[in-house]
Design goal:
Blueprint: E1 3-7, H1 11-22, E2 26-31, E3 42-45, E4 48-51, H2 61-71, E5 81-83, E6 88-91, E7 97-100, H3 105-116, H4 120-144, E8 164-165, E9 171-172, H5 179-187, H6 190-202, H7 216-224, E10 227-229, H8 234-246, E11 250-253, E12 257-263, E13 266-272, E14 277-279, E15 282-285, H9 289-295, H10 312-317, E16 320-329, E17 339-342, H11 347-355, E18 374-377, E19 390-399, H12 420-433, H13 440-443, E20 444-450, E21 482-484, H14 495-511
Parallel strand pairs: 1-2, 1-15, 2-11, 6-17, 15-21
Antiparallel strand pairs: 3-4, 5-10, 6-7, 8-9, 12-13, 13-14, 16-19, 16-20, 17-18, 18-19
Length: about 525
């Protein structure tokens, strides 16, 4: 039985801890904060409850496998999961709207044809067919297996884009195209383009620079569905924490790790802020790469020159999610969609505000455009409201990850006393959300603003293409006995990918560094 120290109690770290404990190891988790779950948080006040991180679960099979493998119990025995249908309602800039069914390609085709005009559904369906090819080519290396040593081959984009007509009518393939270029070339209708780009924006990607393989993002959601746990996504974190406790994982909160101890050329434990030192045979770090490097005290970089290296500049450019929690008077209408995406009035202005005027500039002109893309969450969940005569609604939008709308670096996201800039931004979100909830402002009892912390956002899933710029560092570090887990390492961010990160780290520790994933 090996002693394993886990730094951080995020979803990926807890997933690894539970699996390692079941494998017979003694696992202790050290979390500098007061609670577990990482970005999976919940804000509660006066009987209202709001998810302040992810609002829906995609690829639930990842957590179903986790709970079966760590307790021979189905996920649904500990979390009440329901499919959200429609998966989303989209309100476009021209006022048209479309409600997209959950996990039904034929249903989505019909819904788009009915809302946007004949032929739009088939065009979107054809696009998803090509996205499936990209998914099939990258599912194992980018989700189910440790990052390949020859990761450079993943720098080639797997998306089978349509050929483009060139000079003299000749057709040539579109090579290394961005997601935005694919959208303009294949989808044509600006509303379909807005639909596609909204998936990229939701994961923190700039569609102008994201590779065409980002097409897998809508494919994943529309194929595997959108799920909601009763009590919010936080209920999933609660269930995973309880599973860890049941498997004798030890947790220490308010326990900040200040150093990874090395001995004889391998990780040998951790030092804590209070001066304590914990010996361990293996250390699993569920922290951002720059913090992991700091914990090594400059003795050695976590990854070598030939590895995928963390990009500190890219981390600073990942947008934050500016969130507004609304307590409403009046019941939730029975036909209300769980999730509505209200698209920006000017997509070009929004991308310039969030990512910069040029696709690689990283310097936004302002923190939030006049009318941004706003995600509106209205769960039909009695646990989110004091009674049926009230409703809890969460609004969120992507914002520049620094500046007047964010909290200081390292500060946990939570409700704040609104600054003038934050109040103005919240007003913009509420105004946009009126397209989804008519008369919204008149129903507001109170609101709470929850800004993101500067530089604290987690990137989206790893993507193939673009020369490997959208890959994440490997779970194996160059230091024996030290592994990295969570959204900043392979296979990237998102609830499902965090869960897979934990599975990959546990597999490497249990089976050895030459393990290539479950077959």
């Amino acid at each position: 039985m090996a002693r394993i120290a886990v730094i951080g109690a995020g979803m990926g770290a807890m997933a690894a801890a539970a699996r390692l404990a079941v494998a017979g190891h003694r696992v202790a988790v050290y979390e500098r904060g007061a609670t577990y779950g990482g970005a999976v948080r919940r804000f509660e006040r006066a009987g209202f409850g709001f998810d302040t991180g992810p609002g829906l679960l995609h690829l639930p099979a990842v957590y179903r496998d986790l709970f079966v493998k760590t307790g021979r119990e189905p996920l649904e025995s500990v979390v009440e999961l329901t499919q959200v249908d429609p998966a989303a309602r989209h309100v476009f800039a021209d006022g048209t709207s479309a409600a997209l069914p959950n996990a039904s390609r034929a249903g989505v085709l019909a819904a788009l044809d009915g809302a946007l005009g004949a032929g739009t559904g088939e065009r979107w369906s054809d696009f998803l067919g090509r996205a499936r090819e990209a998914w099939d080519r990258t599912r194992r290396p980018l989700l189910e297996e440790p990052l390949w040593a020859d990761w450079q081959v993943l720098g080639r984009d797997p998306y089978p884009s349509l050929p483009r007509r060139g000079l003299f009518g000749r057709r040539r393939p579109v090579a290394d195209a961005s997601l935005a270029e694919i959208a303009g070339h294949e989808l044509v209708d600006p509303r379909l383009t807005a639909l596609l780009e909204s998936y990229a924006l939701a994961y923190g990607f700039d569609p102008r620079t994201a590779p065409a393989s980002a097409a897998v993002l809508p494919y994943m959601e529309q194929t595997f569905g959108s799920w909601y746990p009763r009590g919010g996504i936080r209920a999933l974190a609660d269930a995973l924490y309880e599973r860890c406790l049941a498997r004798k994982v030890e947790f220490s909160f308010g326990a900040e790790v200040t150093r990874v101890v090395e001995a004889d050329g391998r990780a040998a434990g951790v030092e804590l802020r209070d001066g304590g030192c914990v010996e361990a045979d293996t250390v699993v770090a569920g922290v951002a790469p720059d913090r992991l490097a700091a914990l090594l005290k400059g003795a050695e970089e976590p990854w070598g020159a030939a590895d995928v290296r963390p990009d500190a500049a890219a981390r600073r450019r990942v947008p934050g999610r500016f969130t507004v929690a609304l307590a409403l008077r009046g019941p939730r209408p029975a036909d209300a969609a769980h999730r509505t995406v209200v698209h920006a009035a000017d997509r070009t202005a929004e991308l310039a505000a969030v990512f910069g005027e040029g696709s690689d500039s990283g310097e936004g002109s302002e923190a939030l455009c006049e009318r941004p893309t706003v995600t509106v969450l209205r769960p039909d969940d009695p646990k989110s409201r004091p009674d049926d005569d009230h409703e809890a609604v969460t609004l969120s939008a992507a914002v520049v990850p620094y500046g007047e709308l964010t909290l200081p670096p390292g500060e946990a996201s939570g409700p704040v006393e609104e600054t003038a800039a934050q109040a103005a931004a919240a007003d913009r979100l509420v105004a946009a959300a009126e397209s989804a909830i008519p008369g919204l402002r008149e129903r507001v009892l109170w609101r709470a603003v929850l800004p993101p912390a500067e530089g604290g956002s987690v990137p989206g899933p790893a993507l193939a293409g673009a020369g490997g710029r959208f890959l994440r560092p490997a779970n194996r570090t160059r230091i024996p006995g030290l592994y990295a887990v969570g959204g900043w390492t392979h296979p990237g961010g998102g609830l499902a990918h965090a869960g897979m990160s934990g599975a990959l780290v546990a597999g490497l520790i249990v089976n050895g560094d030459d393990w290539h994933g479950s077959q």
